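Duplicate of #3305? Posting structure anyway:
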């Protein structure tokens, strides 16, 4: 493929690509840094709205991935290209190299299944849900709703019991949020203290996603605390999308 694909605009490509990649055996088979490079390039493609391929000087990516010599970064890039995850067009002295992601054959079945699943959900949303029709809802008709005597106010449901997330759940959410929180550290931290937030006895966590967002705010404000996450200093996707 010598030219940049033109069929990625408006199809949620980046998030489908990243989720499919994380759900595969890519990290085990091709290495964490090669997968991370592919994720980074996918996020930059999205930031450019898929109008052109991202361009980078090699030194720029070496610095971002924490490699002091070209050999280390070239090894990562070669692994990603050999895995079929990236297309790379070599740059010149006056032009940076071009990068864009590819969906290899070993990844395509899950990628297409994810596309169909999203399309099916969108179609169901357009047609209505089991709780309503085009003419009205289960509690009403096209002419109006039933009286309160026939439809008493339903009792409030108790909140469902908290279920701790897996490391993969947190990692996927952090990718969606474009932060650099260490998912494994996050899960280990709260598992160790019984999923309680705050000092001392603290209070039970009801929404782990809200806790992730709290960590983001503390980090951006520059106020690390005893609950502040460990960071990957070699990758900064906060501006990736």
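Output from current build:
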């Amino acid at each position: 493929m010598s030219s940049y694909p033109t069929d990625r605009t408006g199809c949620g490509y980046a998030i489908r690509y990243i989720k499919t990649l994380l759900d595969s055996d890519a990290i085990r088979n091709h290495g964490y840094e090669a997968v991370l490079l592919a994720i980074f390039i996918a996020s930059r493609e999205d930031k450019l709205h898929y109008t052109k391929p991202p361009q980078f000087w090699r030194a720029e990516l070496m610095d971002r991935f924490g490699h002091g010599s070209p050999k280390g970064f070239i090894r990562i890039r070669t692994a990603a290209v050999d895995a079929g995850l990236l297309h790379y067009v070599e740059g010149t002295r006056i032009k940076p190299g071009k990068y864009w992601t590819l969906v290899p054959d070993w990844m395509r079945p899950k990628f297409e299944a994810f596309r169909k699943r999203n399309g099916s959900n969108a179609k169901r949303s357009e047609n209505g849900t089991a709780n309503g029709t085009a003419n009205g809802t289960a509690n009403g008709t096209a002419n109006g709703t039933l009286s309160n005597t026939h439809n008493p106010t339903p009792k409030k449901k108790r909140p469902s019991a908290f279920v701790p997330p897996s490391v993969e759940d947190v990692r996927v959410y952090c990718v969606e949020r474009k932060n650099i929180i260490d998912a494994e550290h996050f899960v280990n931290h709260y598992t160790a203290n019984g999923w309680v937030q705050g000092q001392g006895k603290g209070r039970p966590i009801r929404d782990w996603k809200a806790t992730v967002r709290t960590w983001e705010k503390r980090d951006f404000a520059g106020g690390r605390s005893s609950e502040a996450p460990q960071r990957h200093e070699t990758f900064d996707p906060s501006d990736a999308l």
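Confirmed duplicate; merging threads. The CA atoms of residues 116 and 122 lie 10 Å apart. Confidence is low (pLDDT under 50) at residues 122-126, 132-138, 228-241.
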